[in-house]
User: What shape does this take?
Amino acid sequence: MKRLTRILRSAGICGSYRRVGGITRGLRRRRDGRLETCDTAGLKPALQLLICVAGAFFSPALRAAEPVAVAPAVTVAPDFQEVYSLVRSNIASLSTTEVDRLALDGLLTQLDGKVTLVQAESHEAVPTEPSVAAARLYDDAFGYVRLSRVETGVAEEFAKVVDQLQSTNQLKGLVLDLRFARGQDYTAAATIADYFFSANKPLFQLAGVMMRSTAKEKPFPHPVAILVNSQTRGAAEAIAAVLRHNKVGLVIGQPSAGQAVSYREYPLSNGQKLRIATGSVRLGAELTLMHKGVEPDIKVQVSQTEERAYLADAYKIFPHETNAAASPDATASVASESSTSAARRLTNEAELVRRHKESLGESADPASTTATPAEPEVAKPQVRDPALVRALDLLKGLALIKTVRPS
Assistant: This one.
């Protein structure tokens, strides 16, 4: 009030505090905290205006002093049947069947990994590739095996393929490719993991059943790199998790799907089946794979389209790589590398022997004074699959360390 008095006096509207007090008594406070004017009839228009401005000026402060009631936040979800009925009755363009289908799709999407709708057996897609989809050798020393499905019989086929790679080559490491692999045979998953263990020990637990390895004299003795991506599901995730958890190998790629669970199927009236998750793979007392999946030790971001193409051809060059190589900087780099390689090819073994003798002051063999040009070497194709490149680099590094510092 004193502030308003000073404002009125400074404006020259009145000169005495008594007059100002009479004017300010024309303001009164309402219940809602606002100021309103009364008994202002007969006052100068300028004074009436100033009283209105003062009321607006003080209203926020008065309102701030009053306790404000806050409506409680709604935490209870609306009733599904209520929403469903309103949608059906108000959207005439949607039939009852369409509304039901949309509701089911939304439910299954939100429960991804926990609940799956399985088509009737007559409509299920027939696998187009074997469970052990590929087996090959890189750089004459590193085996590569890719699994497409973890199912009955795949463990025996896997062991057979790896044994064959070891018997015909001096292996220094193995790449186990589980990208896009799936399947629900956790017994087969445990058998594949067992291939890498020498002692009897727990591997993982599922639905109260503990899977264990078996004691053996000759487990796989070399380093392992495991490739996974977001489409690595089910029992394939269990294999990757067990090998990583027990420090058998490192995981490279992208986080897996987080669907290493056991299911129970319920038949539906239309011939389909509803598959509901009933248990998750556990490693130890706390670590579960449901919704978390397997986190890679080395992350590699590749689109699924390119990754599928690399599975068919690890040396495939995409157009964007060709364009990058055609840039001026890349061209200069390639030219420099080509000239260096050419210079290295001209210096063959005979030329090196001749230079060594000359440095020792010995006479060179006349037949060797003329260097014989070496035949041009055929360049080996380079692996382009980013995840596979990381895996091979890792295994080569580990093999080199083992050579320098043998155990």
